[in-house]
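Re: [ENG-882] Designed sequences occasionally contain unexpected residues at chain ends

Forwarding the minimal case from QA. Structure tokens:
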């Protein structure tokens, strides 16, 4: 039987791209440890459509 851990998969979505109204979205899938980071994650990732680094926030 597999052991349950604290590591979960999360989706990060670009906040700037969402506000521009341009078609498509910039999303990344990553994992996080629920025990160490109970809050929602915020990372700077590259947005290919806008061609710059933007803040990506965790979505549910």
């Amino acid at each position: 039987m597999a052991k349950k851990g604290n590591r979960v998969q999360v989706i990060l979505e670009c906040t700037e791209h969402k506000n521009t109204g341009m078609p498509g979205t910039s999303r990344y899938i990553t994992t996080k440890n629920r025990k160490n980071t109970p809050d929602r994650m915020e990372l700077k990732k590259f947005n290919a459509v806008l061609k710059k680094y933007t803040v990506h926030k965790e979505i549910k």
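QA comment: On inspection the terminal residues look reasonable. Residues 15-20 form the longest helix (6 residues). Proposing we downgrade this to a documentation issue.
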